[in-house]
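User: I want to check something. If I give you two sequences, will you return the structure for each one separately, not as a complex?

Assistant: Yes, each is folded on its own. Here is the first sequence with its structure:
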Amino acid sequence: MKIIATESYYQMSRMAANIISAQVIMKPNCVLGLATGSTPIGTYEQLIRWYEKGDLDFSQVTTINLDEYKGLSPENDQSYRYFMNTNFFDSININKERTHVPDGLEADSAKACSDYNKIITDCGGIDLQLLGLGLNGHIGFNEPGAAFEKETHCVDLSESTIRANSRFFTSMDEVPKQAYTMGIKTIMQAKKIVIVVNGANKAQIVKDAFFGPITPKVPASVLQLHNDVTLVGDKESLSLIQDHLQ
């Protein structure tokens, strides 16, 4: 694992965007695995700035998002499709038909997951996967205890995840209790993985996930087994692993 320590959220975002932009430049028709949440927003903002300057062309890029709430329509302002459109896709020259998010309105979980697995396979797999890191070690919506071998599946969200996501909703009662998520097996099949973390509240899970035992109790710990992982974090989030940065 390569660890890039930065001084701030802005620098973290810029460094992650630099890695993604290099992938797009080297392979214009690449497949990007993308993440939602507050942490990647700065990365998307930087990529948009470089696109507006004429430095990046997304016209041939395909994207595959990690997850989507079950039961939310693409037009719902808390859906991850809406998030991606407003925070990234609407501001670049990407073909929306090549941007993929699980179908939150598909009530048949088995069909929704099977359809998404087929999309990923038909795209030829993921060249670069962007990840955030949950406070409990979840990646995508793969919660503690999730089997490492799973592909896309429907998950019951943990109470801690529902609570963390409730800040985006009027109340906890409105937060969906299930989601469709790319499985850990699929994430691990990506050729390259970039993880972005920021804030002191992530310091303990960073230490546990990347320097503790590999266990389904900390889903992100499996990333220790991947041969091309880059962790980009600000100084607060990396504060407990200083010994490993020397």
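And separately, the second sequence with its own structure:
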Amino acid sequence: MNDAMIVNCVAYANGHKLPHLTLENVPALLRDPADAFVWLGLREPDEELMARIQDLFGLHELAAEDAHRAHQRPKVERYGDGLFVALRTAQLRDGQVDFGETHLFVGPRYLISVRHGASSPFTAVRARCESNPELLRKGPGFVLYAILDFVVDHYFPILDGVEDTVEQLEEQFFKGDFSPEDISLLYELKRDLVNLRRAVAPLVEVCNYLVTDVFNGLIPEDIRPYFRDVYDHALRINEAVDALRETLVMTLQISLSLSATRQNEATKKLAGWGALLATPTMVFSVYGMNFKAMPELNWSYGYPLVMGSVAVICLVLYRFLRKAGWL
């Protein structure tokens, strides 16, 4: 069962991949004075496997517990001569944004990645690192950058998809052609953007922390500019998320304003037609009282005059309400 949770276990020396590495060989490789490091990839390991990894690499128990249980906010912590980095990953599936977590243990001779939930495999990251032996020779620091860059870059397609959906909703709202399902979708997008901001905003602090010189030789000086590039990408994503959130709020306000406007128009029309009906209703209700003495009874033009007067009053009132925009 443990083997199924081990995605990959590879060692690199002098920028090149070493063959045939297993967990049983890790202690001997770490004791070897040669400049080699291990890149171990795990997928949702159980408690038994995580305890074994903790023992092999000497991981701090608090960091190992965080990596096993997940549900961590993006952060970077230092334990002895190693780092623990927690990241939030995201994938766009059927218009919905699914979130996962990736935890990284970085030491002088190892990098361990632990993935949970929605996250893409690091096959492309490994290929990229192996195609740059000069940078891979720098050790786990460069691999840490490559994974950070991979995770951050995967936010851009998600933002593009959300932005396209928001633009479609905007067009529908401005045309007045929207349904309750569109309002529900707008709230879902707003919720996804809130979760996306929670995932991306701390990355700015993480990248800024990694650029500093507090880690001595763990991250070589010539690798730090690469982290500044990831830092710039994280800032761009944060700005894009904030802009989309403001757009969604504005779109929601516009939709509510348009709904209120349409309700007011309907109310005005109903009030206008009610005013038109009030005149004949009042006059004809008088004739429904069956008075004995009515002037029209002894005058043959009485009723035509009353009907004509009612028609003229209704016509004048109709033109007035039409001009006022109530009909």
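Because they were folded independently, the notes below concern the second chain alone. The first strand starts at residue 6 and ends at 13. The first helix runs from residue 2 to 5.
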